[in-house]
Amino acid sequence: MKLARKERQELQSLIRRTTAAQRDVTRARIALMAHEGYTSAAISQELGVSVQTVSQWRQRIARQGAQGIREA
Asked: What are the pLDDT digits (tens) for 14-72?
């Protein structure tokens, strides 16, 4: 999965924000790690979430871009 430079910057900014919701930070990390080429299993292990969760968010972010990390 590839993200545009602007999307990566937005996600990195979100991760650094101390007031960001933890679930959004985790989703942003999933997106950034996927962009860097990590497998779902590696992301899952690193972030302590299930492979199913990683796969779900990877698919959603691939469809919607960085805005996909937000709840509908």
From this structure: 999 999 999 999 999 999 999 999 999 999 999 999 999 999 999 999 899 888 888 75
Our count of domains for the chain comes to 1
The three-class DSSP label of residue 70 is coil
- Residue 65 sits in a domain whose CATH number is 1.10.10
Q: How many other C-beta atoms are found inside a 10 Å radius of the C-beta of residue 7?
A: 19
**Domain ranges, residue 17:** 5-69
Please name the amino acid found at residue 51: V
